[in-house]
Amino acid sequence: MTSLEKDWINNGAPLFELGEYKKAIECFDKALNINPNAYKAWIYKGVALNNLGNFKKAIKCFDKALKINPNTKEAWYNKAMTLAKLSRD
Length: 89
What we know:
mainly alpha
C-alpha cells in the first residue's frame, strides 16, 4: 500500500464515521485510482454503499475485494449482511 493510497483511505474513514458516505466513497475511489487492488478500499466503499441502500453496487465491491484477497473475513461478512438486506427488500 502506497502512502498516498493509505492517506485517501484514512481521509475517508472519519467521513464514513460521520455518516458522510458519499464523500467517503470519493476518498475510497481516489485510493482505488492509485491502486485498484486495494481490497480494503473496496470493502470500505462497499460498506458505505450498503449504508446508502445501494446493495447491488456494494456486493460488487465486496466481490472485487474477495477476488483480490479471498481470505478477508470483513468482505465475506459484509457481503453476507448485504445479501441478507437485499433479499428482504
